[in-house]
Write a structure and sequence with these properties.
Layout (H helix, E strand, L loop, with lengths): L1 H10 L3 H64 L2 H10 L46 H12 L1 H4 L1
Length: 154
């Protein structure tokens, strides 16, 4: 028995060693919590930056749409009938008289055809079944019997 108690005393750790283990576990936990907090902060920062970039890009799209609409309005004003007429008159053009108009005929030119919006008349349905397959099994059997016995049916 003395031998067992001696071994137990040798295996039993000193109190300072136990304290050191608890401090090590606490510091390990603290390091893990710090790493998790840093990872969370990193992910949150990247998400916030991506969201901000998305807002900037959306603002740029809206600005481009506004500029495009403004340019379309300017183009419509510049190509309107009244503006074109004023510019043509300012450059010395005038409306043509009937005796000044010359028509040139181009061989092979096909004028645009009007669009036909009516429904096309459906063609008669075409049977997709071959004549050989339009016969029932009984009719085929009857034809085979008649063909094999020429004296009975004809």
């Amino acid at each position: 028995m003395d031998n067992v108690t001696g071994i137990a005393r040798k295996v039993q750790q000193a109190p300072w060693r136990v304290q050191r283990q608890w401090i090590g576990l606490f510091l390990l936990g603290l390091v893990v919590v710090t790493l998790m907090a840093g990872l969370h902060l990193s992910v949150t920062t990247r998400t916030a930056l991506a969201g901000r970039e998305l807002q900037i890009l959306q603002d740029e799209i809206l600005d481009a749409q506004r500029v495009n609409a403004d340019l379309e309005t300017q183009w419509a004003n510049l190509t309107s009938y009244s503006a074109m007429r004023e510019r043509a008159l300012a450059m010395g053009f005038r409306p043509a008289r009937a005796d000044e108009i010359l028509y040139v005929f181009a061989a092979g030119y096909q004028p645009p055809q009007p669009v036909n919006l009516s429904r096309p008349v459906p063609a008669a349905p075409v049977s997709l079944i071959l004549p050989a397959y339009r016969q029932s099994l009984l009719e085929w059997f009857s034809d085979q019997l008649t063909a094999s016995n020429p004296a009975s049916g004809r």
